[in-house]
Amino acid sequence: MKVLVGCEYSGTVRRAFALLGHDAWSCDLLPAEDRSNKHIVGDVRDVLHLGWDLLVVCHPPCTRLCRSGRRWLSGPGKMTPPKKLPKGRTWESMKREFDEAVNLFLACWNAPVEHVAIENPEMHDLARDRMPEIPKPQMVQPFWFGHPEYKATGWYRKNLPELKETNRLPEPERDSKEWKAWNRVWRMPPNENRGHERSRFFPGMADALAVQWSEHVMERKAA
């Protein structure tokens, strides 16, 4: 089975599929951290047409699409300048980033690939207005797959089933030391690598989606 993992430079999801014997490739604007020769440096949109059975897009830019970013895109009404913009940003740059994020999502969703999964938070209304009729994302957590962490992860799926938890951990008591450790992702101090570190994929979730979604695709191909 040919698998393309878009917007991933760590290789975590690519390796999960490769371990199952699939012809798995990753693609990102950055070089592969593991220096794999199964990684394409470039825009994922340039390789969507190469006959993939499954497309998994792991970390597309989502800052302008997710609900937490809604405040920067609208004052009164819709798509009007807010009272305050992030430091060093302009209204034109915010709109441009929003358009770019929408276009990337749509290009992947409408790719000539039968089975597609795109990782993105639940979108705000302005992003939804630009989308076709897409299902709500399935929201999952790393602790469903053996990682003691909180990070709500949304999956928009086309012709793919919901992910099933594989190793759910009991949640710690709220505000306990362990609970604070589980919120590591949200408590990272600002630094130049914060965005990359927050977007790192969880191996347990990668293993789960590789097994479950490849089984589903292979069954459909054999039918």
Q: Quick gist of this model?
A:
This protein has 223 residues and is an alpha/beta fold. Helix content is 28%, strand content 14%.
Number of helices: 6
CATH architecture: 3-Layer(aba) Sandwich
Shape: globular
Overall pLDDT level: 90
Strand content: 5-15%
The level 1 CATH classification is: Alpha Beta
Largest sheet: 7 strands, mixed
What report would you give on this structure?
- The protein has helices spanning 12-18, 91-109, 125-129, 177-182, 194-198, 203-222; strands at 2-6, 23-28, 39-41, 54-57, 115-119, 138-140, 153-158.
- With 223 residues, the protein is an alpha/beta fold.
- It has a single domain (2-222), classed as Rossmann fold.
- Strands 3-2-1-4-5-7-6 form a 7-stranded mixed beta sheet, sandwiched between helices.
- Strand 4, helix 2 and strand 5 form a beta-alpha-beta unit.
Features of this protein?
223 residues; alpha/beta; Rossmann fold
Task: Spell out the blueprint of helices and strands.
Elements: E1 2-6, H1 12-18, E2 23-28, E3 39-41, E4 54-57, H2 91-109, E5 115-119, H3 125-129, E6 138-140, E7 153-158, H4 177-182, H5 194-198, H6 203-222
Parallel strand pairs: 1-2, 1-4, 2-3, 4-5
Antiparallel strand pairs: 5-7, 6-7
